[in-house]
Design a protein that fits this description.
about 45% helix, alpha/beta, 5 helices, globular, five-stranded mixed beta sheet
C-alpha cells in the first residue's frame, strides 16, 4: 500500500510518498503555498499521480503528549485534505521531526536557502518512516 505523508506548514508543506510496498520512502517534494485550500488541492493531485491509498499527517503535540498550540489549525487542514482527497487523514505525532530534520541536514552540510527548501520534505520523510515502522509492527 502506498502511503503519502504530510508535514504541513504555513509557507511550505513537505510531502513524502512510500514505495508501492509501503516499506520505504520513495519520493519527496515540497508544496510552496500559504493558501490552505490550494495546498490541499495540490495534495489531492499528488494522491492521484502517485496512487496513494493512505494519508498520514504530522500533528503537533507538546513534549508531555498534550496537543500543541497549533493543533486546531492542523485539524482544520486535515479536514480540508480529507474533503479534497475523499479519504481520511491519519494524524501522526510529529514531535521532534523538524528538529531531527535540521540535524540530518546539518550532518549533510545543507545550510541557508538549500536547507530551507529541503527541511519540510525531510520532516515528511521522518513522519512517513515512523508511520511505516508502526504498521510493520
Amino acid at each position: 500500500m502506498r502511503v503519502l505523508a504530510i508535514d504541513y506548514g504555513d509557507a511550505r508543506t513537505g510531502i513524502a510518498v512510500s514505495d508501492k510496498t509501503g516499506m520505504i520512502v520513495g519520493q519527496t517534494t515540497v508544496i510552496h503555498s500559504r493558501n490552505a485550500k490550494k495546498t490541499a488541492q495540490e495534495i489531492a493531485l499528488l494522491v492521484q499521480q502517485t496512487g496513494a491509498e493512505r494519508l498520514v499527517m504530522g500533528f503537533p503535540r507538546n513534549m508531555d503528549g498534550t496537543e500543541g498550540p497549533r493543533a486546531a489549525l492542523y485539524r482544520e487542514f486535515a479536514a480540508l485534505v480529507e474533503q479534497e482527497c475523499s479519504m481520511p487523514v491519519i494524524l501522526w505525532d510529529e514531535r521532534r521531526t523538524t528538529v531531527e530534520a535540521h540535524n540530518i541536514l546539518s550532518d549533510c552540510n545543507y545550510h541557508g536557502k538549500k536547507r530551507k527548501n529541503t527541511v519540510d520534505a525531510v520532516a515528511a520523510s521522518l513522519i512517513l518512516e515512523g508511520y511505516l515502522s508502526f504498521l510493520s509492527r
